[in-house]
Design brief:
Elements (H helix, E strand, L loop, with lengths): L1 H11 L11 E6 L20 E5 L17 H12 L7 E6 L1 H17 L5 E5 L18 H11 L4 H4 L2 H20 L12 E6 L7 H4 L10 E6 L10 H12 L4
Parallel strand pairs: 1-2, 1-3, 3-4, 4-5, 5-6
Helix pairs in contact: 2-3
Length: about 250
């Protein structure tokens, strides 16, 4: 039983260093279609005793054989079950786009189910959850139309979209992740007690400052919006600046 649990933990945290050797663990959740490896270059980016902990979601990376979740509620519950043994000392969450929604709802779930809270919530590339989302659903489009929309969103490399074998691997993950976002419905609740920092791209065509500022109603603590050069995937071109923000905010509680 213990070996099975360790294997489950390795599946969720494939790139993690020993989690209990850090003063604060920053769990990082990927955006739609991505896996934990997008944060590989971040692993050595924070000074000790802080640590970046990339999270691998079902259906991608070494978990490719597992079915991906299509509803945020079930993903939140699974993530909480896997991570809660490692939330017995200070932790923070970072998530981009879909990962931001996951981070937010996981923080609320952990507070309500077991009284645990991140010391800081970093949310990136996602409008506040209570705002209406006018985008048309795309998760069930026929493949040609779905691929065209992916090209318009500019988040998937053309080499992947042009390769039938790679499309066969990636498209089911993307459809599942888009279904998570399309079916998500915010349920009102008490604001969180932890500070929230929200990041956005200055040239993001999908999420602007007007979408980011309303996140402030979801915390009783400090709140700040930071904008970086770039489009919706600005996190890849502003790695050093983002890590600097993490270090400055998390060192406050070390």
């Amino acid at each position: 039983m213990l070996d099975a649990y360790r294997e489950e933990t390795i599946n969720w945290l494939p790139l993690a260093k020993p989690l209990r050797q850090s003063a604060v663990n920053l769990f990082c959740f990927p955006y739609s279609g991505a896996n934990a490896s997008i944060y590989h270059s971040w692993l050595s980016g924070l000074p000790k005793p802080l640590a970046v902990i990339p999270v691998e979601l079902p259906g991608r990376g070494r978990r490719l054989s597992e079915p991906p979740h299509t509803r945020l509620s079930s993903l939140v519950e699974s993530a909480a079950e896997a991570l809660i043994p490692y939330l017995d000392h200070p932790f923070a969450f970072f998530g981009h786009s879909m990962g931001a929604l996951l981070s937010f709802e996981l923080a609320r779930f952990l507070r309500d189910c077991c009284g645990r809270s991140p010391v800081h919530l970093f949310l990136s590339g996602s409008g506040a959850p209570h705002l209406p989302h006018p985008e048309q659903p795309i998760s069930e489009l026929p493949e040609p139309e779905f691929i065209q929309r992916l090209r318009e969103l500019n988040g998937t490399e053309e080499a992947i979209l042009a390769c039938p074998e790679l499309r066969e691997l990636l498209l089911p993950i993307l459809r599942a992740d888009f279904a998570i976002c399309e079916t998500y419905r915010y349920l009102p609740g008490e604001p969180l007690d932890c500070p929230i920092s929200v990041f956005g791209g200055l040239s993001d065509p999908f999420v602007g400052r007007a979408d980011l500022e309303p996140w402030k109603v979801h915390t009783r603590a400090a709140f700040r919006v930071r904008l970086f050069p770039g489009d919706h995937f600005f996190l890849h071109t502003n790695r050093a600046q983002i890590l600097t923000v993490f270090a400055r905010e998390l060192y406050r509680i070390v």
